[in-house]
Amino acid sequence: MSVPESVDAAAPEAAHEPAGASPLGVERELTGHPGVDVHLARLAEVDHLPADGHLEVYEDVHRGLRAELTSLDAHPAPRPYENRS
């Protein structure tokens, strides 16, 4: 069996060119918590980024959501009229 001599060496590389950014079409629903909704809205940015730019956005959103959850566990400072020492 012989291999044709006219094999284009650039053709396999062209087949592996990264695709351009395209929206994933994922619907985002509001949660009713403004702090959470702001972070989730940032996920729309990845629709306009190549795949190698997604990680930075995902990590930032994750940090923001963790901060929101942590703030729920924080005890609010007592109000002046609640301080009964």
Q: How many helical elements?
A: 3
How far the N terminus sits from the C terminus, by CA atoms, comes to: 94 Å
Order of helices and strands: HHH
**Nearest-angstrom radius of gyration?**
25 Å
DSSP, total strands: 0
Mean pLDDT: 79
Provide a short characterization of the protein structure:
With 85 residues, the chain is an all-alpha fold.
Description:
There is one protein chain. The protein is built from 3 helices and no strands. The protein has helices at 10-15, 34-41, 54-73. The protein has a domain at 28-74. Helices cover 40% and strands 0% of the residues. The protein is elongated, with a radius of gyration of 25 Å.
Question: What descriptive keywords fit this protein?
Answer:
mainly alpha, about 80 residues
Topology:
Elements: H1 10-15, H2 34-41, H3 54-73
Helix pairs in contact: 2-3
